Amino acid sequence: MLGRVGTVLLLLTSLIACSPGDESAPPTKPAKKKVSGMKSPEHAVLVYLKLSDEKMGSEQERNECHALEDRLERSIKAKQAGELDGDEFGEGFCTLYIYGPDADALFNAVESDLRAAPLLAGSYAIKRYGPATDPKARETKVVLR
């Protein structure tokens, strides 16, 4: 059917396909996601911006939150402190999620923008010193208004 030549070619093809490759090459590791070339972003600053109602706030408030978010993102990048990961609206707050290797450096990068913003009373930030998966990670609350 295949003949000797066909059988030999099939066998060689199978051997090549199953060979482990160059064993002298170092094993490759999956790339880790880095934030602006920094070490792993284990800390966080969670900013809770109080809205005028107990739901999602007005359209104007949401637009103001997005504008503030843009300013914070620029400040974080300028100080190479981490990254702003996004926002969430609901239950009377706009929550901003900021991550990096040092919660104090993150907060210092955004504090002047937050203090200059026309925030409602009840707005605050949480500085978390450790990963979200660590229930013992220290947290500090900072009242903004």
Average pLDDT number: 82
What's the SSE pattern?
HEHEEHEE
Number of helices: 3
Any idea of the CATH class of one domain?
Alpha Beta
Describe this structure in words.
- This protein has 145 residues and is α+β, with helices and mostly antiparallel strands.
- The chain is built from 3 helices and 5 strands; from the N terminus they run αβαββαββ.
- A 5-stranded antiparallel beta sheet has the order 2-3-1-4-5, covered by helices on one side.
- The longest helix is centred in the middle third of the chain and has 20 residues, at 59-78.
- The termini are far apart.
- 19% of the residues are buried.
- Residues 5-19 and 21-38 have low confidence and may be disordered.
Give me the secondary-structure topology.
Blueprint: H1 3-18, E1 43-50, H2 59-78, E2 83-90, E3 93-100, H3 103-116, E4 124-129, E5 138-143
Helix pairs in contact: 2-3
